[in-house]
Amino acid sequence: MTPFRKMHGLGNDFVVLDARRADLPITPARAAAIADRRRGIGCDQFIVMEPGADGADVFMRIRNPDGSEAGACGNATRCIAALVAEETGKDHVLVRTVAGDLPVERLPGGLWRADMGPARLDWRDVPLAREVDTLHLPLTRGGLADPAACSMGNPHATFFVQDLHALPVAALGPSLERDPIFPERANIGFAQVLNPEHLRLVVWERGAGLTLACGSGACAALVNAARRGLTGRRATVSLPGGDLVIEWRADGHVLMTGPVATAFTGALDLEAYAA
Fold first, then answer.
1. Are residues 162 and 222 in the same domain?
2. Catalytic residue check, 214
3. E-state strands within 196-233
4. How many domains does the chain have?
5. Pair 106, 127 in one domain
6. pTM for the full model?
7. Per the residue annotation, which of 43, 73, 79, 150 is the catalytic one?
8. Is 150 a catalytic residue?
């Protein structure tokens, strides 16, 4: 049997396995089966902790519920940093991902602040299928138009709307995620600016669908809102699962502050899930 933890950041939930001491037979199909909420444990992202190297405390591998690999997950980054800090007593943890290194700092009150790296604003970095202004994408759907895009280690597009509650996000999300302008698909954010220091946000996540919170999506929403002049460079982002504080520093790096939680622990038989 293989031990696991069920963790979450604001309800954005993860199955976490530890492969730092021994390899685990994790395939995309097996990860998807475990992530299934009816036949598996269920999660928004499937996380495997792997050995760190060259200064990193841990390598975090991220898979979406469909088995596809993701480059970044802000809420999971805080969770994994908290686990390493619990083991080591460190207040500063370096989490490595396929998208780069993410330093995380313990703060008072059970909060963790992750440096999600620089927001990447060029169309090639998102990436987009052709050269367009990332501040104004030629993308429309169901009365929505004019999103802004950036990369936070994974592709994001943000629509700014007047009334988030009236928006049929679940109906719009699937086709927007797979629009041809996004060759690697994209996370689609729907943001309502409440004031220059407060956004309300819902995210349709690439490969996962609607989640209670999306850390990288919150970072992207703040960056895109600040680029539009709708907010300053620091704001509270309210998601269905709770609040994150996002700051876009002058050096381009984006800081995300929020809580972590462990829901339960257990053990599973990996061979019981399709390889």
1. yes
2. yes
3. 198-205, 209-210
4. 2
5. no
6. 0.92
7. 73
8. no
